[in-house]
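[job 4471] stage=fold_predict status=RUNNING
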Amino acid sequence: MAHEVVELRVHGVSGASAEELLDHPVVIRVAGDANAGFYRPRPGFGISDRPTGFSVEAYRWGALTAGAAARTLSLLFLLPFMLVNLAAWTRPATGGTGGLIGPLCRLLAGTITSAFVLSLVGISIDVVGWQCVPYHPCLRGRPYLGWLAHLPLGPRLAILALVPIAGLWLLGWLGKRSAQTFEAFSASRGQTRVSGGEDQIDLPGFWNDALVVQRLRALHLAIGLGTLSALLLAAQLSIRPTPLAYVGYVLSMLLLAVGGILLCLPARIPTEGPGRGPVDLRGIRALRYAVIGLTVLALTYTAVPLEPEPPRGQLPGYETTVASLVAVQAGLLVALVITTLHQRRRSSGRHGAWISGLTAPVIAAAAIAAGYGFSAALVYRVADFLDRGDIPNPVRPNPPGAPPLEPPVTYRWAALAGLAAILVVAVATLWRSWTTRRRRRRLADHIVGRDFPGPPAEARSRRTAVREAVASSAFTEQLGPVFIAFLVLSLLGVATAALDLLGIGPSQLSSRLFGTDGTATRNLALLTDVGIYVIGMIALGILLLGLLSYRSQGTRRTVAVLWDLGTFWPRTVHPFAPPCYAERAVPELAKRIVGLSHGGGVILSGHSHGSVIAAATLLQLPPEVLPRVALLTHGSPLHRIYARVCPAFLGDGVLTEVGERVGWRWVNLWRDTDPVGGPIFSGHWPGDRPRTPGPAGAVDRRLRDPRGITVPEDDTVPPPIDGHWPYHTDPTYEAAVRELAGRLEPAAGSAPAPATGA
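[job 4471] inference complete, writing structure tokens
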């Protein structure tokens, strides 16, 4: 039986085609489907300079993350959910379960679902049903709203309450559909951990969280419906307080509290053994039926006509509810910062962590900011439209004939904080780029001088271009202070937004603290208007980005990076986040490797984010397969990004374990011009950490890029600067493949592997 060595290539977030991965014009799919498939060159087409016994195969998983339009729309509307889900995966490595970080992130996720419901309530029930419809000038020329004026107030509000219910149903349907398509893929048996510790990615069943998502989906639907019921009943209490309304309101608050408690509890029941325990679904069905019944009660009670109708203004209780939710989020975010700092002190890998180990609260703050930014822009844009072109503002008189629309002051605070955050982050990024430029250029000069000493005069401009490419690629590590500034500003933003509980907006606070006159107050109101426009323009920019991604490969790659990095981890925090493609990609790739290893060896080659999928796959392989598997990574962010951002799951200890499991049959190729990839076990820049002793020190191999700065005799232009892509066209890549092939153990009854010099 011949021993076949298969080089199995896995692409990164750029979503390269199978033809590009294989450097072959004609390919066929040999396994998988159109969403994620395995491809090989079609026999009889083209030539190969590899000897008999070598085969090359590509695993293309890019279709799992959908097309450009779906990706962009999801990135816009599901961005807060995706960010808060990612936050829990970036906790410090403590050797335990993460303490309170997981429950705090899940509680924050629940508040973001409530904020989503409140934004839809603000548009449909408050601005349209309560404030706009009773005023005839608001309905002039709008027949699509005129029919609502013929309904009594109660039935009108009950009908408009179907809008947030429909929004929740849509999120639930999308999550269930994605789970059926991409998640709950049958996983391999996995391995027993070599060392104990956290809920690591090598545990059997780690990439099968369909039941966890099902549990979270039920809880978040209950929280969303409970928020709607509580708001409707609170409004009724201010209009016509009755014992039934009081009982319903108390029950809704109790059910919200039960939902919060269930979010804090672990999703899985602890069991003995290396696997993950079963999902605890107890009480979920009872909670679901109770919330549905309470929602029906709230809608029925609201639908009863009110005689006489109450005076207008804002929907009673709505602004207080929004401000109270922001205050709760502020407290949870502060608690998350304190908990993360405490966990960071216990972390053995804290010195290499990104932004001092505060990644989790930074990403959680970004989720809250994105949620309220989009909510404020949406509510104010609708109010602006209904107000005949003027953003409702407490310091400016409304034009004649326009309704006095009044969105919550909290959203005005959110717009002002969003504008400040955008300006501060932009200025901090430019400042960081300027202040680090000299040092980055000095280090780049050292590298380029070592690679290309004494260049001729005609090559000096090319040498300068290479130096700038090397210096630019080093900017990734310089953004830490920018994100710290964003975290501080976010904490101040949510704290000040909670002032709406006291009825204090930006203009009122300015007048009380600084004694500003009417002109200053109007200028501050103008700034908040600008913030609303800027946030709206950012949302529009994301949509335009999606349209441009159809035509521009660079733009499409940028969108893909944001999507693929944010949806790599399972949805164990927020069920409405975009689906986790790794729940199919990792088990599917592991199953294919096991099948190929029966007939020979496998060299798993991962580029960029594909190297992360490759490492996660190796940690799921059965022990008897590992001697016939080798790992080749190139342009890999495993240490440069993932070990720092997600140290609890892909930290240095886990990477060392990957190397040990494959017997250190691992080669990592990297370039100084690559802004994403880098070394894994050695320093990136001169003066960085020394090369790791032992077999890990032989993993990293630096490629000089470009190969030269002068024009070769047989060419017309100097060699290109490859940067992040491609790596597989470099001669060193082919040499690494042959070297790893010679180090593989043959399968039982197989002939030896081809010689490395073949």
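[job 4471] summary: Residues 409-451 form the longest helix (43 residues).
[job 4471] exit 0
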